[in-house]
């Protein structure tokens, strides 16, 4: 009588496979692949959506609007807070440009500001600013619509109304930051005179002021991406492009300043127009970085399968 062999159901069962988690190298490889695809798509979008041409239009519009805007802003600051606030506004507004170009622009502005009739400067600056700056905002709007592949669905009255709103909001923020630039140093000198050992706190206050400027610029950029183009307003979908634009502007400002001071010689080619041409080229590069930021937002959304950013597709 043969004895049957007892079979245990679990004896020959294959061990359960572990869920393999990707290692750090695999995660890095995936991230680099995704970043390469997104950046390549954004660069191709800049070319195919006429970003180079739109950046030229934005740079020209900014040159056209810069001096009237500065005249109005400084005249308004001098009217509201006296000559000290007006001078500080001009220095703060020019702080975003490389030092070589500031030395070219500032004497021309001071020559204009030397006129004793501030009211005429205020009225002239406002009139010309409203005409020129709306063209600049419209150029930015067109570049964003092209980058996001959106078709404009708003009428001219609504568009130009939002343009003017952006202008006045920008003026308010510049004047507010300039006022802080005057009030805070006075307060710091009072603290230094009345309180001992406050150097550490004073350093933190100065760092906080610079951080506040960066935050305001970032929020303004995000609002531009959300409000100007004919797209759906999703803050998450514009954060990356706004951050990349801020970093790119900062790097470009430093590198372009070094380029002007050590390599470039625009005066030899453009004679008396060298400073203006250098300023236009700088604004052109900054506008190109801005357009790239918008294309990057679109490319990231498409990479994740979201193609419904626009209210009306172009």
Automatic annotation (TrEMBL):
NCBIfam families: yihY_not_rbn (TIGR00765). It is a multi-pass membrane protein. It comes from Propylenella binzhouense. The chain crosses the membrane at residues 27-48, 54-81, 164-187, 207-228, 240-260, 272-294. One of its GO terms (cellular component) is plasma membrane. This is YihY/virulence factor BrkB family protein. Keywords: Cell membrane, Membrane, Transmembrane, Transmembrane helix. InterPro entries: Virul_fac_BrkB. The keyword Transmembrane applies.
């Amino acid at each position: 009588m043969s004895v049957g062999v007892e079979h245990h159901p679990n004896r020959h069962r294959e061990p359960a496979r572990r869920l393999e988690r990707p290692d750090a190298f695999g995660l890095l490889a995936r991230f680099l692949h995704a970043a390469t695809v997104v950046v390549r798509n954004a660069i191709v979008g800049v070319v195919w959506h006429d970003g180079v041409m739109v950046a030229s239009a934005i740079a020209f519009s900014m040159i056209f609007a810069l001096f009237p805007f500065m005249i109005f802003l400084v005249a308004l600051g001098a009217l509201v807070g006296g000559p000290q606030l007006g001078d500080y506004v001009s220095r703060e507004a020019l702080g975003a440009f490389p030092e070589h170009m500031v030395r070219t622009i500032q004497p021309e502005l001071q020559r204009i500001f030397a006129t004793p009739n501030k009211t005429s400067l205020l009225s002239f600056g406002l009139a010309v600013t409203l005409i020129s700056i709306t063209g600049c905002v419209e150029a930015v709007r067109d570049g964003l619509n092209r980058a996001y592949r959106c078709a404009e669905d708003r009428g001219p009255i609504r568009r130009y109304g939002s343009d003017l709103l952006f202008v006045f909001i920008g003026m308010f923020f510049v004047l507010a930051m300039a006022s802080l630039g005057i009030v805070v140093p006075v307060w710091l000198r009072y603290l230094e005179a009345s309180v001992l050992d406050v150097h550490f706190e004073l350093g933190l206050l100065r760092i906080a002021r610079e951080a506040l400027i960066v935050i305001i610029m970032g929020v303004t950029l995000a609002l531009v991406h959300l409000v100007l183009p004919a797209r759906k307003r999703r803050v998450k979908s514009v954060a990356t492009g706004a951050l990349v634009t801020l970093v790119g502007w900062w790097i470009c400002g430093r590198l372009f300043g070094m380029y002007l001071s050590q390599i470039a010689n625009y005066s030899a080619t453009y004679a008396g127009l060298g400073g203006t041409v250098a300023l236009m080229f700088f604004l052109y590069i900054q506008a190109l970085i801005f357009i790239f930021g918008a294309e990057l937002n679109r490319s990231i959304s498409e990479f994740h399968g979201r193609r419904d950013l626009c209210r009306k597709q172009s």
